[in-house]
Structures are given as C-alpha cells and as structure tokens.
Design brief:
heterotetramer, A: 168 residues, alpha+beta, six-stranded antiparallel sheet, 4 helices, 22% helix, 27% strand, B: 160 residues, two-stranded parallel sheet, 5 helices, 6 strands, binds adenosine-5'-triphosphate, binds magnesium ion
C-alpha cells in the first residue's frame, strides 16, 4: 500500500488546485514561514477524516475553506483527494479488486459536506473505516505535527499506552 | 488482548533499546510498564540515560534530547509495525547539526520500508530527501508548490 | 488602577502596531480589550493581519508567524516599560532565514537599552551577539563554558 | 541597573564552578544539545526565587543539585549567585547606598536552604521582594523559556492581561 498523490483545492491557502505526488523514500517540503507547508499536513488529516476543527488549528470546520486574501475573493468550498495505490489485499472485500483507491472530502460554505470513495458518494464513517482497515488511520505515531514532537514524553504514562495498542 | 499488548510492548522495547544509542551515539534507554501485573490498564514510563550522564527524569532532558528521544520511540514503533507513511513536521527544529546528521541517516534507512513526508527548514534534512517540493507565496495568501531540483535551489527557495 | 491599565494598554498597542509590520515587512496587527468597559477584568485579544493575507484567528497562523508575533508583543512591552534584561531561549527555532534577519536587526536596536541573553543554534542570530559563550560537555554530564571569538569558532562550537 | 555576572556551582550540570559575565548588548549562548545552555536560564530563575520545581523541569527542588555522572559523584549542594551593578536609586532604603548587590541561593541535599544578600543571610522572601522592587522580578515577559514563545498567543485573553499589568 502506497500513497500516490494528494490533490488540494480550496483548502486553506490553496485556492489554486495543487497536486502533490508522493514518491518512494523521503519527500521533503521546504519554504518560508507561513507559505502553506503545515497546511498540506492539515489537508492530509482532513481527507482522512479529522473531526476536530481545533485539531486543524481552526475555530470551526468552515475555517478550512480558503477565506480570501488581498488579491482573491473567498472560495465556496474546500476539496481534498487522496489517492492510494497498490492496495490489493489491504482493503475489505466490499471494495473488490482495486489497484488504486481515491478518497475525496468536500466541505461547502453552507456547511454541507460530501464524501466520496472512487468518486462514489459515501459517509464520513466509510472513510474513517477504510483508513482504519488499511492501518493508515492509526495516525497516533504516523503524523507528528509542528511543535508536537515531545508530546510523547510529556504525556502521562496512561496516555502512552495507546501507542503500543495501535502498534499491536 | 493481554498477550498481544505484552508482546508488542516487548518488541517495541527491544527496538527502542537499540535505536536510542544509535541516535545518541551511546547511552541507553528503556520503556517500563507502570503496572506489569495489569496489561489492560498499565501505563508506560520511559527511562533515558544519555551517554556519560546519569539516568534522570525525562522532564530534565534538554529540548534537543527530548525531541531525539521521541523520534527514537516513533522509529521503534515503525520497526515493529510499519505504517505505509510517516509525516514529520519540523521535528528537527530543536536539534543541533550533529544530531540532525544522525537523525537523517536513520531516516534514510527507515525510508526503504516507509514513505516519509518531511517538512523542514534544515539544510541537512533537505539533502537526504529523494524528492523536494518548494512551497512559496508569490501571491500573498496563495500557496505555490514546485518540484525542486536539489543543490543550488535550496537556498533560493528558503530565502524567498 | 483603571487609568494606569488603560494607559499602559494603549501605549503597548501603539508600539505593537508599529513593531509588527517591521518584523513582518508589512501587514498590520492590533491588541483588543475583550471588555473595554471593565479595565479591572477585561482580557486581551490579538488580531493579526500578515502582509497580503486576510486577518485570521491567530490559531491558524503558522509556527513561524506565531513566534514572530509573540516576539513583536514582547518587544512592544519592553519599549513601553524596559526591563534591565531579557532572556530568550531558542525563540528563533521556528523562523526561516529572512525572518531571523529581521528579528536580529530589531534585537540589535533593542539591545542598546536592554541586556539580552540569547540562546540559539542559528548562525544569523550568533552573528548579532556582542559576546558569545560556547557551552560544551568535554566530560559528559559536566558543562564547560568558554568565551568564543566570533567568526571561525562558530561552526566548531556548534558541531562539537 | 545592570546584570554584572552569574556564578553557578553544583546546580544541575555545573559541578565545575562557572562564571558568566553579562556584557552590554547581546550575549549569545551556543552549543550542542544537552550541554547546559537552558540550565543557565534555570539557574537565573532559581536565584531570583523560583518556587516551583516543575518550573525548572524537575520533580522536586532537590533535582537542581548536580546528581553526578559517569566521571563524578553527586554534589552535596547547589549554589547560584547573581550580581547586579549600578543599582543606586533602584533599591529600597534598607539596602543603603550600594553600587553593586549580590544575591545568593544555596540548597543542600538535606533540604536545608540558605539565602544571602551581599553575603548577609536573609529569607527567600527578602530575595523575591528585592527583585520585585527593582522591576527585575517581573519575569513574565523578561524570560522566554525554550518552546514557550507562543505561550502568549495560546493563552486565554484573561491570562494575557497580566502582561499589561506588569508593564503598568
Ligand atoms: N482558510 C484559510 N484561508 C486563507 N488562509 C488561511 C486559511 N487557513 C489558514 N490560512 C493561512 O495559512 C497560513 C499558515 O500556513 P502554514 O501553517 O501551512 O505555514 P507553514 O508553511 O507551515 O509555515 P512555518 O514554516 O512557519 O511553519 C497562515 O498565514 C494562515 O493565515
Ligand atoms: N541535577 C542534575 N544533575 C545532573 N545533570 C542534570 C541535572 N539536571 C539536569 N541535568 C541534565 O542537563 C541536561 C539538559 O541541559 P540543558 O537543558 O541546559 O541543555 P541545552 O544546552 O539547553 O540543550 P538544547 O540545545 O537541546 O536545548 C540533561 O541532559 C539533564 O539530564
Ligand atoms: Mg508549519
Ligand atoms: Mg535548551
């Protein structure tokens, strides 16, 4: 199972549709402060089913939609698509025999949400289940957000057990 | 289940005992169960012994030592149960050059089995990337992303 | 007292409105009283408007933008009521090179009225220091401190 | 009022008596991870009267005494002295007409503490009062610890008012 690409449109600082191809090994992301690097990580977490706006640094989920800047008006929705490849054998039966699978999440300013797996509408629950089944959803040690690297150490011993639980 | 938790804990601990001295160029560290009798409720403690120093409360560790210890734990979890990808957002910020070197060496090894997405401002970390994306804002408030050829482009993307 | 709080708030706000665009090379920012009617209980909010972007919740700001905004607030407090000294431990860690440059320029100005003690791993910050101490551990666990002559010594102390 | 020097002995990683001279302008402190840079800041806060062990990253106050390493045994006490110069006019009357003033804090493994101002024993209270009177004790915005720079921004609006109160 590999990540193939991440497509971001209308999410935070991405009014321009942007495609990030994941390669083998290490993909580095560099650039000045405030340009959108961590926003890419937020887009990743969001398309994987993040439910907490605070977890994406916002006050409400609508905060993820591009709110405009000096040169552009706000957009009406945010959309992120994650494509996985080489998924044979990793997915539950209902997904049949795909080689690739794409997951899309869309949020409109109206508050209306859309979720799609391989372009077929589904519920948010189906997306989170999919990621749980593939093992990708075990994000606890798969994603280390900015400034959060020593969270493992400052956590209480009781809180750390979930790391072992997720690896079990 | 109890056995599975115990077994996973032991495997992660084995890795941690090996990974730590590699990143710290010596010393030792270990994970401990706060309640070995109760696999369903026990917490997990960490004892860290940097090279030449005495084991201390992990709270007394320096900013860089804490970050590197946390990286050692994460790498240990990945070695026991690989996840297809791992995303690290500026974990190298508190590390000095020598520690970034050791971190990136091990990162390169881990990357044969896992796809890594690494956000960094550090030149040493950039050099170990197989592919590099430069993120800029030509138009303020609007992200631009370009594929970057390594070497000469590094300083120009950072300085933008 | 009420008047003193109001007056101090206004003075700090004046400075903040000037310091922010200096550090961010543009944009604007302001402090707000959550309850202007009640000087004894009111809280203080911050609205930040980086150049070319729209004002957002400060929680949405990037790591570097947050650090620089916090520095702007601290410098504003010092400009209104100088303290004899200011100690900064690795505040430049999340900043890119361009922001470290602007930070150190203003730091050098502030340093005419205040003694600064700055811990850093950043070469640009080191260069603005009037005096430099190198801290090492020849003997593990035992701190050694030496006065460092600037220029060639920088890389050797860091790489130790 | 200026800081003249900080002398550290037996505190954390300073089994070797160490003197840090404060100069005009910017004094930079550099060095590899874990070598004692932040410990210098802890020594500063401790001699100024820090009461919380947690505030110095320890579990109990005894954690500030050098606990030994491979090549040395633990020490029996920790001692830090801060010397201020050009203090005329900044001190309360009882301190007379000093040009310089030194503050010493000592903690023994037994738990016994000693406090001295210009070598004369006093109480911890006298030290904290002294620093309050000189305006140095208003540490809220005078000391930014490692990793704490964005505390001002993540604080609640109610918590931020103390910054203005201290500047008033
Ligand atoms: N919905 C939105 N619309 C427009 N801009 C947004 C939105 N949400 C966040 N932003 C902006 O995104 C910027 C933060 O981007 P991000 O955190 O990705 O920066 P970064 O590249 O990681 O920088 P650093 O190196 O400082 O960590 C902020 O300036 C913020 O105002
Ligand atoms: N009482 C003590 N006795 C001996 N060593 C101690 C004591 N208290 C703390 N230490 C050690 O001090 C070290 C931390 O030092 P410090 O935080 O000053 O590092 P630093 O130079 O700031 O590093 P970094 O660049 O990573 O922030 C730790 O290794 C810790 O074990
Ligand atoms: Mg970021
Ligand atoms: Mg430190």
């Amino acid at each position: 199972m590999k990540i193939k690409k991440l497509e971001i449109y209308g999410f935070k600082t991405f009014p321009k549709p942007t495609e990030l191809i994941f390669h083998e090994g290490i993909t580095g992301i560099v650039g000045p402060n405030g340009c959108g690097k961590s926003n890419i990580i937020d887009a990743m977490r969001w398309v994987m089913g993040e439910k907490s706006a605070k977890g994406l640094r916002g006050g409400s989920m609508g905060d993820v939609i591009f709110s405009g800047c000096e040169s552009r008006k706000p957009l009406g929705f945010a959309e992120v698509t994650l494509t996985l490849s080489e998924v044979e054998g990793s997915l539950p039966e209902k997904f049949g025999t795909y080689h690739e699978i794409s997951v899309t999440r869309r949020l409109h300013r109206s508050g209306e949400s859309e979720y799609l797996i391989n372009k077929i509408p589904c519920r948010l629950r189906d997306i989170t289940d999919l990621f749980l089944d593939t093992g990708l959803g075990k994000r606890a040690y798969s994603i280390v957000e900015q400034g959060r690297i020593d969270a493992i150490l400052s956590a209480k011993p009781q809180e750390r057990r979930y790391l072992i639980e997720e690896a079990a | 289940s109890r056995e599975r938790f115990q077994q996973t804990f032991d495997e992660v601990n084995e890795q941690f005992k090996a990974v730590f001295p590699r990143l710290f160029r010596g010393g030792s560290a270990e994970l401990f169960l706060t309640d070995p009798e109760d696999m369903l409720e026990t917490g997990i403690d960490v004892i860290v012994h940097p090279p030449g120093k005495k084991p201390q409360h992990i709270s007394l560790l320096s900013g860089g030592e804490k970050a590197l210890t946390a990286v050692a734990i994460i790498f240990s979890l990945f070695l026991v149960k690989p996840s297809p990808f791992c995303i690290l957002d500026e974990v190298d910020a508190p590390l000095d050059d020598a520690n970034v070197e050791r971190f990136t060496e091990m990162l390169a090894e881990m990357a044969t089995a896992t796809q890594f997405l690494v956000i960094t401002h550090n030149k040493i970390s950039m050099e170990v990337a197989n592919h590099l994306y430069g993120v800029t804002m030509e138009e303020p408030g609007v992200t631009d992303m370009v594929s970057v050829r390594l070497s000469s482009h590094l300083s120009s993307v950072e300085a933008a």
